[in-house]
């Protein structure tokens, strides 16, 4: 007998098959038991008919607890009501291990309770769908960059530098030295771009930020492309192409998952390059027109400001050329103004906030040296980075896309904590 996965059931109509499953839920009457089965690849209904299977097996089916693991044997039947067109007429059950007092029942549970049981919560339909969307974004990321001439390079996680400011670092001992967990692989990716031209990384990054918002994780995954001979405007074009590609890939390949999540896909269909661009100056002006008196030129945007700007558009929007004072040391100054830099943040629609931060990078040696000094960064730790400016430096640009914020936006998940398998939050290291 063939062992198959639930997702492949529609290809086995009429065949008797064996599937390794867990019992997600069940309902039964005196004659029939409906088993909601899941196997990781999908969810399907198994129907047990007492008259067909006999008293003994029917009693096993009726008595099984939620999340009991088993092999089920049965004939795959076409079924129009099922989301993917098949169900299983169960004729045999081999229980592997029963589950005891499974805590997450079909009733509503509080968030903290679910977070404490994250190791089990991942089995639920909604979490399954979010993880599928996450996986598709990762798959489409590799596809996009590989098709566009990028090479994947992996920056270190233990580092001696802090590209995004020194206040949000996780310190650790590195034998006799001090080290930090990487906030961003960018500086290493700049070195990599000088070796391989167009590169991208995908890895975990860490921010010891005491933020407790629906957009902040302590540990999150970032995709960081870096491109030699690419200037600011050209980088924005890559960004909008990339984001369009991942959104369109999810729409195409995660239909069932988006449906299960209740995602309004009409809001995603329109996400195709080009995206609108407004300058920081224009954004401030717009916010003042909208009655935001709390923000002045030179301030960074808060979530309500970003949301007000995003709500004005039906696609993600680039805010370009921020004041030099609120951005990191490495950003290239504007050629005609000394108060702003050549950078952009990409703000997602529907209030999901900034998903990309990027810029053109400084490559002039004297300017880089003075910027490092102004930011009180150690010339010893950054010697290798400064050295890049002396060895055939070229204009180059790059950006970082936060995976979890992107997952939250595309899947329509309110809080970022559900967009990563095991979130690290301000007050949570368990499980
Ligand atoms: O804007 P950020 O800090 O930019 C950088 O780290 C650059 N070095 C990237 C680069 O140019 N190579 O972070 C980039 C993105 C943000 O736009 C956001 O999507 C995400 O990373 N991000 C976070 N996501 C979740 N939790 C946090 N605490 C995040 N901080 C940043
Ligand atoms: Mg940023």
Give the arrangement of secondary structure elements.
Elements: E1 2-3, E2 16-28, E3 32-38, E4 43-49, H1 50-53, H2 55-63, E5 69-78, E6 86-97, H3 111-116, H4 118-121, H5 125-147, E7 151-152, E8 158-159, E9 171-174, E10 177-181, H6 186-196, E11 198-206, E12 219-228, H7 232-253, H8 255-260, H9 266-269, E13 277-279, H10 280-289, H11 303-310, E14 317-320, E15 343-348, E16 353-361, H12 365-374, H13 383-387, E17 396-402, H14 403-411
Helix pairs in contact: 5-7, 5-14
Bound molecules: 4-amino-1,4-dioxobutan-2-aminium adenosine-5'-monophosphate (4AD) and magnesium ion.
Magnesium ion binds next to strand 16.
Integer-rounded radius of gyration? 26 Å
Number of strands: 17
Strand order across the largest sheet? 7-11-12-17-16-15-14-13
| Second CATH tier, the architecture of the largest domain | 2-Layer Sandwich
CATH superfamily of the largest domain: Bira Bifunctional Protein, Domain 2
- CATH fold title of the largest domain: BirA Bifunctional Protein, domain 2
Structural summary, described in words:
This protein is an alpha+beta fold and 431 residues long. The protein folds into two domains: 2-97, Nucleic acid-binding proteins (OB fold (Dihydrolipoamide Acetyltransferase, E2P), Beta Barrel), CATH 2.40.50; 118-419, Bira Bifunctional Protein, Domain 2 (BirA Bifunctional Protein, domain 2), CATH 3.30.930. Helix content is 30%, strand content 26%. The protein contains 14 helices and 17 strands. The protein has helices at residues 50-53, 55-63, 111-116, 118-121, 125-147, 186-196, 232-253, 255-260, 266-269, 280-289, 303-310, 365-374, 383-387, 403-411, and strands at residues 2-3, 16-28, 32-38, 43-49, 69-78, 86-97, 151-152, 158-159, 171-174, 177-181, 198-206, 219-228, 277-279, 317-320, 343-348, 353-361, 396-402. The strands form three sheets. Strands 7-11-12-17-16-15-14-13 form an eight-stranded mixed beta sheet. A five-stranded mixed beta barrel has the order 2-3-4-6-5. Strands 8-10-9 form a three-stranded antiparallel beta sheet, with no helix packed on it. Strand 9 and strand 10 form a beta hairpin. Helix 5 (125-147) crosses helix 7. The longest helix has 23 residues, at 125-147. The radius of gyration is 26 Å and the shape is elongated. Bound molecules: 4-amino-1,4-dioxobutan-2-aminium adenosine-5'-monophosphate and magnesium ion. The site of 4-amino-1,4-dioxobutan-2-aminium adenosine-5'-monophosphate has 22 residues, from strand 12, strand 16, strand 17 and helix 14. Magnesium ion is lined by residues 345, 354, 357.
